[in-house]
Known about the structure:
alpha/beta
Amino acid sequence: MSDKTDDREDAGMRTQTAQAVRDLWSEIKKSKRVVIFCGAGVTIGHTGVSWGELVRQVGRKTLCTEEDQKDFCIACENFFGSTSFTAEQKASVAAAKVQDDTTINEVIAKTLYKNSGYQQGRLLIALTNLIMEMLIEHIDIDIVTTNYDTYIEESIFNIIDVYKNNEIKKLPEERCPRMNVIILKDDGSEEEIPIHDGGGSTVNFVYVHGRVDRDGAVLGTVVFSERDYEKSHNRTTKKLMKLFENSPTIIVGSSLVDTPLIRSLLGLARAESKGGGVDYHRYAVMARVLERNEDSNELQVLRAEQLGLKPLFYDYYGEIPDIFWNLHAFLLKGVEDFEEDLPCELAKNDWVKKAEERSRERTISTQVYEYSAHFVRVIRKNFAIEDEYLKIEFWFLEGDDGQTRRRFLKVWTNSAGPVYTRGLRRCEEITSENAERVASVRSFIDGGVNLKPLDELNIGNAGTGGCGDTDSSRWKTFFSVPINYRFEEYGVEVTVGVVTLASMHWIAGSKVTSFCEKITEDRNSSVDRGKLSRKLSFLSPQNDELKEALRDSLMALGQYAAVLIASDGEDVEEPTSDREK
């Protein structure tokens, strides 16, 4: 297939998604209530674990507690690591020996909050910013979730505080939203618990599988095992059908395999097919299986139609927040200003044009080099191993001189020295294939922070050399942070680049080598992997607080560089971060 054919098909699929976003907006605008179904994907950047990993952590606590159970431990490791069993089946095994659900709830709370991740992306911020603006515009919201965590609640509370303290756009108390937690009980009844009082619209947080807060306190019944799912199935399905029936609905962060969700969608689709048309549709954020493949796209459309859904397609995870920022822009700016391209696409086009204009200006490369070189020295002095060399690279979004709509990441500068000559800057197209081999492209596509060792990237003979020196790269570990930039004229925030810290040392390959024993590796020791002797990086320990501080500081540096590019030579405030200090 030629590049031109690829581009035409890609443009056609993007047009389809753009139209679906516009259709969703027109339904939101005429409705007084919107339902948003949030799956695990909405908060996974904050929890740091998938549903499967959460189940594994519970199993490690409940099943294998004695060190002499070696054979049983191995069996558990194989079972929970197998792809032949579903997460629900594994959950049933993890809960089998538990007499009191308190143990399960304690592990869930510890895993979701105390062991939470540093990989926070843009999705939750984009979604809750949209929710807040809809509430201000007198649209009630029902947020229904299968998640146990309270990160969505916390994000909305944070936005309310920002609005209350904003002198320019201060939100009066009478327009602050009312917030309620709604818990489904085993007998089918509901309990409504107010958590914030206000005079504006109402947002209800409907926890269909129970709620576990930071203190480990539980509201409702935590639905964990297959027995729990069976017991709660009918009430959950009934509640979902009632919520989805008469309001525009957005499903996000879900893989669309959850049984109550699927049965509620099928039940409504069946009833609506008999009764004729519907006033409001249900929209689902869905990944394209194959990038730039129109036929594969059509197969997914067929499944969506069977479920009564209108798909909001994305090619990679980092594009999902753009859907909600586009809706946010329509709410603030009106849809008339965006008749051709969606707001996020216009913002990216503006960025690419600005990057082209400023790419030859030496002062940008020099200034960013000076700050990043200083920062590397600070890290080496305070955290790194004595002989651990580090480098920071700044990759920014660029186009291909207007020939196609393809996008690239290009290295503008790094802490080793400024890169003045445009033709010598490393350039990688933003594709799924390149994400498998380039850590910075992986972070851009994922839309979140990534920590990648060299041997998880498809680069030549990575990880096979003796003593590490004959690997394809002398850089062994990559800590990559997306650079986000706010375009006030469009009312959106988009990712415009990635800043990556590279180390010549490795990170430990596995935190847990046995299902029953947690091995704490000395970061100064070497890890034998075949014939490969590895010196471990300061990034190896499970110190999320350090990684969070590093993430925030790298992001501050990246945003400083982004402002330099977009500033047209105006004075730019130096990069500062409380955590950097």
